């Protein structure tokens, strides 16, 4: 009968066993393989292991510092031997039974082990997430990477933007002699779960052309020698000899829940009786066991530490291993290693609000009073708070102002804030809710001014921490999506609706990801559901004479489908995604009930329906009059969609029937922007007489914002996307822009005025100066750094965009696509 049995020799288990040995506790460390720390052992050879968080002190009888995998494993092996840890190797645990003080651990092919207490440190790496797309029988798909040097001259796809995926991808290109062609695929635009150092290395490799990084991309199918993606703009197929999937892992739930559980026969299958065994926080696959602050599970005497407790970082795991042995040995007064850091964070808060004014009291208070944190464990709360800030605000104090930069999320832990949605009009957000979610999702500047309506306590969560939390705790993601969706519907439909009015609609709705080109409505189909475009854009088409004719464009914030709901009958048009989009599908019956209760909403929907019916009628009635004009317009519209207008909010178009090639547009742009033009008139594509020059489209969700280290790219009050003076010239924005509209260049020296040029010939004249003139006139000893140059819609310049004002023939226009892409405009023009 051992005092403690530790199952799993990862960083947490090793640290626990070493401390048990140091304290002289009778113990046994049980490991199913023939080596220690299997998770680190399976890291790729030569991997640099980081020791984060840097501000956290290490508590362990084993040494640990950042270094190569082999060095760390060697040190742990020596430390384990030096402390005379009692290790039982090649011992696979198949069951745990009994109770505190008398547990039996059944081991495959070996005698049982008895223990008074058990520490589970088995991690999650033995239960990796698997690819869910179709996989060819002859395809090579693997979930680990041992030695990157083994792979030579292969097309390799690494799926997953976490630390493991990034490190695998970097390892495969470390030696140029390997000649591997590596593509890393990430489902999102950001890398919230990866360490900053790894993300910087990845960006550098991409910038140098040593690797391809595909963002906002899902894997559709893996073939024998190809792989197909659902990318932002549609389907993409590339060569692929090997796929390495590093898409996370989940706790080995079946084994853990069965520990000391009662069983019953259910439909001929043995299953755990609910409420017995080790219980988890929720039914989500990546949920973690319920634990006390001392790591004890719902089964007394069974403790859980490390990645299985929701703490994946090595330093955290080793500290827990030390702490849990202290708790088992009777030192219940021990405080966690992060206690001083958290004490400092909570020190300025009002006394008496939480049950106790210590770290534990505040963590419990936040979990209870902030909705998005309800499902976090005490351990997850501690890690989360290391990345977040909390502060008290007096009544009337400004939290942030409209157009301020910022993408963090705020949660109201106490009190309330007032959101100024219009001058003199405030919306109250009270305790438990969140605000700032628009900046979190889109990266845009603040859309409203927010002030404390009364004394309040606010939790500020940086964007990276919020995205990480959403990826690791499904309940958090669901809550943020629900709140943001509810607010979007209230803003869109208005008509005096309240959140309570939308309760049934929200219950009967779902968010769907729509691939580029995929239809959400098909002309002639039955259906009553309503679709709201949350992100991306849709195009509406109607068949005339068997051919699809473009009708209109639906940007984010639009809804469609009300015609069949209100009028009955089949769908009157096909609606498909212009780019990869996200929609909210609302059950038609639930929306019909809402219309019946709110006549003002029904009136609005009827007006919108009348406008759509007018466009449908226009096509039918004027087709013969226009001859091929409608077909031509439809072709032009589809050309524009293919060239990025589907995600634009403002785009420059040139009518080549009117353009005389004077280049006044480029010259005016340069003279309005420090001598550097933001557009290239001749570049870009043309269809019929319509030309799309190389100029910023000011995308709805700008790709250039995805990875800007100094956060220098923002969206202004009129929708303009601009680069501020904090730009460091890293070039990430230029690489991320799919339309090639961002350039890196040095700002030239100031030119002499126009009159000086006209009268005396001084300076290079209107427009962008030549590189030779800029070089020759640069002040001696001044080396200006390059910075990102892009269109800012002439923000702050009277009269609007200089390119449009300077065009002598009216050939240049800047338009929002929803204003331009409508077939009714064709009728107005004719």
UniProtKB/TrEMBL annotation:
<keyword id="KW-0732">Signal</keyword>
<dbReference type="Pfam" id="PF00027">
    <property type="entry name" value="cNMP_binding"/>
</dbReference>
<feature type="signal peptide">
    <location>
        <begin position="1"/>
        <end position="20"/>
    </location>
</feature>
<keyword id="KW-0249">Electron transport</keyword>
<dbReference type="Pfam" id="PF13738">
    <property type="entry name" value="Pyr_redox_3"/>
</dbReference>
<feature type="domain" description="4Fe-4S ferredoxin-type">
    <location>
        <begin position="719"/>
        <end position="747"/>
    </location>
</feature>
<dbReference type="InterPro" id="IPR050294">
    <property type="entry name" value="RnfB_subfamily"/>
</dbReference>
<dbReference type="InterPro" id="IPR014710">
    <property type="entry name" value="RmlC-like_jellyroll"/>
</dbReference>
<protein>
    <submittedName>
        <fullName>Cyclic nucleotide-binding domain-containing protein</fullName>
    </submittedName>
</protein>
<keyword id="KW-0411">Iron-sulfur</keyword>
<feature type="domain" description="4Fe-4S ferredoxin-type">
    <location>
        <begin position="785"/>
        <end position="818"/>
    </location>
</feature>
<feature type="domain" description="Cyclic nucleotide-binding">
    <location>
        <begin position="493"/>
        <end position="612"/>
    </location>
</feature>
<keyword id="KW-0813">Transport</keyword>
<dbReference type="InterPro" id="IPR018488">
    <property type="entry name" value="cNMP-bd_CS"/>
</dbReference>
<keyword id="KW-0004">4Fe-4S</keyword>
<dbReference type="InterPro" id="IPR036188">
    <property type="entry name" value="FAD/NAD-bd_sf"/>
</dbReference>
<feature type="domain" description="4Fe-4S ferredoxin-type">
    <location>
        <begin position="650"/>
        <end position="682"/>
    </location>
</feature>
<dbReference type="InterPro" id="IPR018490">
    <property type="entry name" value="cNMP-bd_dom_sf"/>
</dbReference>
<dbReference type="InterPro" id="IPR017896">
    <property type="entry name" value="4Fe4S_Fe-S-bd"/>
</dbReference>
<dbReference type="Pfam" id="PF13247">
    <property type="entry name" value="Fer4_11"/>
</dbReference>
<dbReference type="InterPro" id="IPR000595">
    <property type="entry name" value="cNMP-bd_dom"/>
</dbReference>
<dbReference type="InterPro" id="IPR017900">
    <property type="entry name" value="4Fe4S_Fe_S_CS"/>
</dbReference>
<keyword id="KW-0408">Iron</keyword>
<feature type="domain" description="Cyclic nucleotide-binding">
    <location>
        <begin position="372"/>
        <end position="487"/>
    </location>
</feature>
<keyword id="KW-0479">Metal-binding</keyword>
